[in-house]
Amino acid sequence: MSDVDFERFTQSLGVQTSGASAATSAKRFERACVLGGDSDAWLLAAICVANDTPVKLFSAYAAELDPLRSAGGVTLRGAGPIGTVALDQSKSASIETTTVLDSAVNDSDIIFLTGPVHKLRTWAMVLAGHLRDGQVVVVLNARTFGALETRSLLRLGGSTADCTIVELQGAPWWLAASGTQLQLSKRTAPLAATLPARREHVLQGLQALIGKIQPCTSTLYSSFGDCSGVVELPALVLGGPFNPNGGPAVPDGANALPVHQNFHNLFGESHRLVASQLLDERRLVASKFGVRDLPNLELALSDYAGGVEADDSRAIPNLQQSREMLRCAVIASLLPLQSAAQLAGVAVPVTQAMTTLGSSLLDADLTAAGRWLESLGVASTSFDDCKRSLAELIDGESSGGR
Predict the structure, then answer these.
(1) Is 111 within the bounds of a domain?
(2) How many domains does the chain have?
């Protein structure tokens, strides 16, 4: 990357602070590592380099790192930062790749976990013996109760380190990968919260490192505020004459413009109806746990479906990506909501129906793989006891808020 491109790359991150106190109190991350080899991992690693933070990119699979090594780096284009970040350069800023976990984790202040749910779980288990006090673990695309699950798995693996876990509901930009080139588009700042709660200096430091986030007072809010399943399930599984795709009308014999091929335009009125019902059920369950200010449907669509213009659109996933997205949405968004609903004694028939439909399309019973609060230490015959137990797990924070 040239000096001009690097300066433009860094300035385009659009870091925001909440005032002078944020700059002085924010935790500063001197070294970072990213676990995973997908495009989200590449993006985070590139952002760290842009912010003059040394970063190691770890993957145990050569197939994930080989494309980057062959290309010599990752290139960012579009509405976000622009530039090419090199790999494994000893005399200039670059992403250092490694297949040695100790090398990636031991000297890092902040560790990003990326990938689908099964990989997030794997990272938590293998990290257990490597973490030390003071490190920050960021769970990207954490969905519902992702931080709680990560802490539970770390403890199951024997970790006793005093770490902060950040539940982050997405990367700072939407991206579409073409080889090692990532086309970025704007997205609503993702929700973020810490476990234990109220470690604002960590969120301020994270914002300074990667750009825009929406800080929440606790993971209770960021979990119930996860509308990924609300938006992604209807878009991916409902089609045909009764539930036609949304988007602008296209005359016979004509082709839709590329700008109209985006996730938001998968939604027609019937999709909106189902998504609205899913959101109503999530809102009802959340209210039982003290969270009452979840977004409305339009905000949920903006957060998780992107916009309709080229610079803020979310790409339509291919079949393989759709299957992975569907699996993660059921396991880590809908089933945790069902778990909370059962504890609260609330019926969520649409959520249950969409869970069943998603499992059927994947030809797998995903129930056992779901995030159930009981397995995370929240179980009692009394709902009041369940709420107290959950509040203790997130350090006494029994209500959420941005």
Answers:
(1) yes
(2) 2
